[in-house]
Each structure stands twice: as C-alpha cells, then as structure tokens.
Design brief:
Elements lengths: L5 E4 L5 H12 L3 E6 L12 E4 L5 H15 L4 E4 L5 E2 L7 H11 L1 H17 L2 E6 L12 H21 L4 E7 L12 E2 L5 H20 L4 H12 L5 E3 L2 H12 L2 H11 L4
Helix pairs in contact: 1-7, 2-4, 3-5
Length: 268
C-alpha cells in the first residue's frame, strides 16, 4: 500500500485489543494502541502505545491529537476498551452501573466524537465497535454488561445511518465467549443478596468454564481484520456458534430461546 492505513485501538494492553494490534501491524497497518498506563504494558512490536482513559474527555482529546500529529489521519477507529460487572441486577448499585456505562458506552461516544471530524474531512473512515453476543442475547447475572452492549448496538446502527454519506461506516463485531482476561477484569457487584447466591455460583462457574474452553482473542482479531478489508457488513458475529445464536434469536420462538439460555448458564 502506498500510504499506510492508520488504525487507533482502545484497550490494546491485552486480550482482543492486543491481538488485533499485533495482527494489523503484521498486515502493514500503522497501529496506535491505547492503555490507561502504557508503562505497565509489555511492548507490542511496531505498535505505538498511547495513554488513554476513555472516561476522561481531556485524555481522549490528547490521544486523538497525538495520533494526528504523528500520522496526520485516522482511517480506522476500533473501540475495544471495556469491562464487565457480574451480579444480579438487584445487587448492582446505580453507581456501579453508571461507571460501567461510562466506560462501555460513553467511552465509545467520546472516541466517536473525537475521530468523526477527522474522518469527515478525509471523506472516509471505518468505526469498528467490539460488542458481544450479549448485545442481542442477554444472560443472567450479567444484566448491566448486557445492557451496555445492547446500548452499543443501538448507538452503532443509528450512527451508521448518520455518517455513511460522509464515506464512513460503522461495524459491530460480536464475539461469543473468548479466552481472554475479561473474567479477571470483571467487577463483582458490591452488594451480595443471599437469595441469589446459589444461582450466582452456578452461573459464575458456567461462565468461567466457557471462557476457559473458548477460542483465543486471535479469532476476534481476525474478524476485525475482515471487518476492515472485506465488503461492508454491519454485524459480524465471531465464529459458528455466535452466527447460529444470532439466527436462533431472530427466528426461533421465544420459549425455546429462553430455555436454551437457562441451560447454557446452568439455571436448569
């Protein structure tokens, strides 16, 4: 390529973000990754790591300006930073929910607002948002996390309608369980209600087992690469099971879907 495509990735310190940064760098992209504390992150060959807290307007502005100073453009924005809260909805405080939305949803909004003026002036760009199958198929005891992903899906689809005439498109990548550090980075709801304890233990064990047996983040990184290089498609479930679940959610009656969710999360 005569001019390197410039990519900015949030949450590149580990997991999906890091795997994506490594893959895109190996394919000749100019990659800028971000982390809250880059000094504490193992270097990624060929990738410039920048400090970024997606919860902070000034940090977002400084990060985007740094990329523009060095590269002069931003062709692809990959919104990957996020975390999960595990616990019953009743156990999750409004403050915990607000903090979660501030990262998973408002963090994306801040990044989008920062890069869109650049992309509009370029007349092109692609925004890739890392969602989840929980963005269309919610599960028990991760209700607030699923809510953030539902919100992200709505935001992304609305945004795509607004910006496509500028040459910009928005993509949702929807992984199933992935073997990353998301479980280690999961926050447990601070309130514990005994009435939920037994069911929560079963669900937690089921989630941990699924994560441990799941494919690695490289599978999601490969889908993100396809989202950049292949003909446009808004929703990109990652892997056969995620694609199947999307179809089942769309076409199967509600009763069987409900029973399958309860079985998958060890509630039956």
């Amino acid at each position: 390529m005569t001019q390197q495509t410039v990519v900015l990735i949030t949450g590149a310190s580990s997991g999906i973000g890091r795997a994506t940064a490594e893959l895109l760098n190996s394919r000749g992209y100019r990659v800028f990754g971000t982390a809250r504390n880059p000094a504490n992150v193992a270097p990624i060959s060929g990738v410039e790591l920048l400090p970024l807290d997606v919860r902070d307007d000034a940090s977002v502005d400084a990060c985007v300006k740094s990329v523009l100073r060095q590269a002069g453009r931003i062709d692809v924005m990959i919104n990957n930073a996020g975390y999960a809260v595990l616990g019953a909805v009743e156990e999750t405080s409004p403050a915990e929910a607000q903090a979660l939305f501030d990262t998973n949803v408002l963090g994306v909004l801040r990044m989008v607002r920062a890069v869109l003026p650049v992309m509009r002036s370029q007349g092109s760009g692609r925004i890739v948002n890392t969602s989840s199958i929980l963005g269309f198929l919610p599960g028990p005891f991760i209700g607030l996390y699923a809510s953030t992903k539902h919100a992200l899906e709505g935001l992304s689809e609305s945004l795509d309608h607004e910006v496509r005439h500028f040459g910009i498109r928005v993509v949702l990548v929807e992984p199933n369980f992935t073997n990353t550090q998301l479980d280690a980075n999961t926050v447990h709801a601070s309130q514990q209600i005994e009435a939920y304890a037994a069911a929560l233990r079963r669900v937690s064990a089921a989630i941990i087992a699924k994560i441990k047996s799941a494919p690695g983040p490289e599978t999601v990184a490969a889908e993100i690469l396809r989202a950049i290089e292949e003909p446009y498609r808004m929703r990109r479930p990652v892997g056969f099971e995620a694609r199947l679940l999307r179809r089942l959610r769309r076409f199967m009656p509600a009763g069987p879907v409900d029973r399958s969710i309860r079985t998958a999360f060890a509630l039956t």
